[in-house]
Amino acid sequence: MNIVKKVSVFGSLFALGLFALVTPEAKTAFYFEDAKEVNAAVSKLVGKNPDAKAIAELAKKYSLDELMHVFKFRAKGGLGVGETAGAITPDGIEAKLQGLQKKEADKADLAKNGKAYATMGEVSLILAEISEAHTPKDKKGEKDPKKWKEFVEKMRTGSKDLITASNKSDAKGLKKAAKELNDSCIECHGIFRD
Ligand code: HEC
Question: Ligand 1 mean position to 156 CA, how many Å?
Answer without folding.
Answer: 14
